[in-house]
Amino acid sequence: MPADRLVRALEHATALDRPADAVAGAVGSWLGPGRVKDLLSGTWFGHAVHPALVAVPIGAWITASWLDAFGGPDSRPAARTAVGFGTLAAVPAVLTGGSDWAEVDGAERRVGFVHALANSAAVGLYAGSWQARRRGRHAVGVGLALAGAGLAGAGGWLGGHLTYAAGVGVDTTAFLSGPSEWTEVAAESDLGEDEPTAVQVGEVPLVLVRRGGVVHAVNDRCTHRGAPLHEGPVVGDCLECPWHGSRFGLAGGEVRRGPATRPQPVFEVAVDGGRVLVRRTDEQRALRLNPVASGGA
Ligand code: FES
């Protein structure tokens, strides 16, 4: 497909790195871990919030296009309102998207940069369309809206590529399973207090932490972007991700601080005669079976 060829070219377009890295760096330094970051990431929502928010301006703009095409002169005020509402609704979509984008690298960052440019230009065109309609220049407003729709469509396609092809925003443990039977993974004597220790069960990486005499086992791959959690510190009763600072409860894997939105899978742990054994606690999911099965599913 031509679109696939285009996106492959974008993925390799290293000329984009300089401006993209500069913008991502500025966003990253402005948005450190904390409440604002969690709000924009969707930590409170349980999923990335950006994909949900983009539906609002798109819906409003499609409504405007429908009215432009079929509504006749009486519907012009409603079309203008829809264009204006969609433009305002694009602001939170842009902010949340920018926050998510600042955390990706390489090919995803390049494609995301063009995705953001296209959508930002679309927002500008729709803002111009609203202005033109307000001044009575209906035909100009319709033309600008059509151009905006084209750019928003192209930007949306790239956004779809980022999610469905590149896996941005997807729980990175979605296809990882773990043993359903008790499986020995370490000797208890090898575990220092509050010292994350990486072990492997089949193809599933785990991090073990002994704290207050209790051993916890958590999937070692951060659900956010896949960082090795054993390289992060233990902070209170949480494990902190070394890449973007998300914190997960050691006992339950729940997200205590974003930008992660999905909890960290945890495993049942038993200590028997100095041997540490684990087994998975969650129900098996279809996509965790073949061909991506691992760890004795
Ligand atoms: S990889 Fe981003 S918070 Fe862990």
Can you tell me about this structure?
- Residues 183-278 form the Rieske domain.
- It comes from Iamia majanohamensis.
- Keywords: 2Fe-2S, Iron, Iron-sulfur, Metal-binding, Oxidoreductase.
- The chain has 297 residues and is an alpha+beta fold.
- The chain folds into two domains: 2-165; 183-289, Rieske [2Fe-2S] iron-sulphur domain (Rieske Iron-sulfur Protein, 3-layer Sandwich), CATH 2.102.10.10.
- Helices cover 45% and strands 16% of the residues.
- The longest helix is centred in the middle third of the chain and has 29 residues, at 106-134.
- The radius of gyration is 24 Å and the shape is elongated.
- The two termini are 37 Å apart.
- FE2/S2 (inorganic) cluster binds at residues 103, 222, 224-227, 241, 243-244, 246, 259-260.
Helix percent reads 40-55%
Ligands in the model, by name, code or SMILES, are:
FE2/S2 (inorganic) cluster
Largest sheet: 6 strands, antiparallel
Overall pLDDT metric: 92
Low-confidence region ranges: 293-297
Following the backbone from N to C, one meets helices and strands in this order, namely HHHHHHHHEEEEEEEEEE
Strand-residue proportion: 15-25%
Distance between the termini: 37 Å
Protein name: Non-heme iron oxygenase ferredoxin subunit
Keywords: 2Fe-2S, Iron, Iron-sulfur, Metal-binding, Oxidoreductase
GO molecular function, one term: metal ion binding
Domain Rieske: 183-278
